[in-house]
Amino acid sequence: MNNICILDNGAYTAKVGLASQEAPQLIPNCIMKAKSERRRAFIGDQIKECRDASGLFYLLPFQRGYLLNWDTQKTVWDHIFSPDCCGINLSEKTLIITEPHFNFHSIQEALTEIFFEEYECDALFRTTAADLSALHHLKSNTVPADCCIIVDMGYSFTHIVPYVKGEKIKNAIRRIDVGGKVLTNHLKEIISYRHLNMMDESYVVNQIKEDVCFVSSDFQRDMKTQKLRYPENTIIQEYVLPDFTTVNRGYVKKPEGPAPEQQTIKLNNERFTVPELLFNPSDVGIQQMGVSEAIMNALDSCPPPVHHVLLENIVVTGGCALIPGMGERLQTELRALAPDDMEVKVIITEDPVAFPWQGGRVLCQSTDFSEMILTREEYEEEGVGASIEKFDP
User: Within this chain, do residues 338 and 265 fall inside the same structural domain, yes or no?
Assistant: First the structure.
């Protein structure tokens, strides 16, 4: 296990560690530049060294969910594997790395070449976060017919991937172009329109989203509540913005607490209307199904005899799964859409962000893992095309 490294290379966060570790390190998968320190670029987790994180400029390796900026990604990987961060030397190690669904062959070939040529890996296994999540769930639970639906709520996309007998049903995979990035950008626009201009404050607004947003269990009821005055209005919250002098991260002010010296904004219906985009993408002009409808649509493409098992094993992973109320809302909507004679069970994993990485640990322990990997000998004999034949037959 010490010679196997697992890298869940997400568009927002890279989860990395040796298979012998209990948990991965979470490192921002980007390079950031701050107004206060223009000469220095902060790579990955170096952002914690930044004294003033206002107005950060991001260099992201991923664009629209796919790895396109290779210079940025290589810089982040160099930092991740350096002694200053994880300190993992990939030479003579096997690497398990994740990629998006429907990834382009050109990206896959470049990925293979970089890790064999630049990092001198001994072997490589390329997979998706959903595949690892499914393996983790199916191995840790007694699931009839090895069936489950993985709902991967990532940074750029939300993917719904059904698995039957441990194999994914490719024609049943559904993708919604809404993820954490769309939610943060929408909240940024709302705050900038209603309160003060925060269009350049992605870092701070993302923290606001994590601190105050929730998924409404009854949207119409909450819309009525947010029109009331405090204290009847139980939704409104006052958020204290960071000044990066005395307060480095914003927080929700207690109603009875003293007035803080820092700038504050009052957040009302945006607390639940922003995550609502996952259920109604048309609210921002994305003409696609919401996540509940997409799950049922994916189910229709699966064999009818396993529908009841799939509905009892809906596993939600990814950063957006951490939004409070997500499981309850999905459970309610799917219960209304599913046949009355079938049980519905939505499972929010204990650690939705690290769940796929943990699936990588399960994969390492499988008896046929050594046959699944692409070895350096195979790569040197057949070239980069060997990875396409091995992992995407």
Answer: no
